[in-house]
Amino acid sequence: MKQILHIISSPRTEVSASRKLGNSVIEKIQEKYPGSIVKERDLTKNLIPLLEEIHINTFFSPAESHSPEQQLINTYSENLISELQESDIIVIDSPMYNFSVPATLRAYFDFTSRAGYTFKYDENGPQGLLNDKKLYIAFTSGNIYSEGPYQVYDSNVPYIKNVFGFYGVKDVSVFRAEGLAIPGVMESSLQKAIESILID
Ligand SMILES: Cc1cc2nc3c(=O)[nH]c(=O)nc-3n(C[C@H](O)[C@H](O)[C@H](O)COP(=O)(O)O)c2cc1C
């Protein structure tokens, strides 16, 4: 039995390719670990704010000095981080939107990348604090980035890996449904990606 955190970032619902791929990853994890508990963090609901000065001042100051407004901000961020800390397995659905992750996912990282919680610095440089977790990335895109002429634009998967690597999560598997805008590829890409899912 595992504790799974499912992070969703597509504002689309029924037609969302990344949700379909991410849901298939979740199903296969549940097959492998029956009775697992899934917590959903749908970033398109109850939007995480864009960083403002008060957020930064809160994250970089001791809790004892926080105003009532900052206490709320700190608790909100701590709750997001607790979901990561409590999970054994993290599944992120990430479509590519304008050569990046959806802005909601970027905002999520702004509220979870915190010294003393997800990483720390010591004399050896940065150290991740979320160790022994498994990350699955369910990536979808209109074009193809895993190979070919657009490989240099492969921004999402390396970025997510970098953020989680910084948090200490090094065990990562990636499933890609690419070419979803390319006739001849789009028809079978998602199905092939779903069939490629292997839970290790
Ligand atoms: C707003 C928007 C921006 C997009 N930008 C890109 C892009 O930069 N590169 C790309 O290959 N596909 C792009 N696409 C296509 C999506 O990555 C593709 O349709 C993906 O499957 C969407 O996932 P979703 O259905 O879960 O939202 C974009 C789609 C949308 C709606």
What is the compact description of this entry?
This protein is an alpha/beta fold and 200 residues long.
Structural notes for this entry:
With 200 residues, this protein is α/β, with parallel strands linked by helices. The chain has a single domain (3-195), classed as 3-Layer(aba) Sandwich (Rossmann fold). It is 36% helix and 20% strand. It has six helices and seven strands, in the order βαβααβαβββαβα. The strands form two sheets. It has a five-stranded parallel sheet, sandwiched between helices. A two-stranded antiparallel sheet has the order 4-5. Strand 4 (119-122) and strand 5 (125-128) form a beta hairpin. The site of flavin mononucleotide has 16 residues, from helix 1.
| Total count of strands | 7
- The CATH architecture assignment turns out to be 3-Layer(aba) Sandwich
* CATH C-level class: Alpha Beta
Order of helices and strands: EHEHHEHEEEHEH
The total tally of domains equals 1
Mean pLDDT, nearest integer? 98
Distance, first to last CA: 14 Å
Over the alpha carbons, how many angstroms does the gyration radius reach? 18 Å
What composes the largest sheet? 5 strands, parallel
Task: Output the CATH topology.
Answer: Rossmann fold
Shape: globular
Task: Summarize the amount of helix as a percent range.
Answer: 25-40%
SS field, number of helical segments: 6
> Any low-confidence stretches, pLDDT <50, length ≥5?
none
Topology diagram in text:
Blueprint: E1 3-8, H1 17-32, E2 37-42, H2 53-59, H3 68-86, E3 89-95, H4 103-112, E4 119-122, E5 125-128, E6 134-140, H5 156-166, E7 171-177, H6 186-195
Parallel strand pairs: 1-2, 1-3, 3-6, 6-7
Antiparallel strand pairs: 4-5
Helix pairs in contact: 2-3
Flavin mononucleotide binds at residues 10, 12, 16-19, 95-99, 140-143, 180.
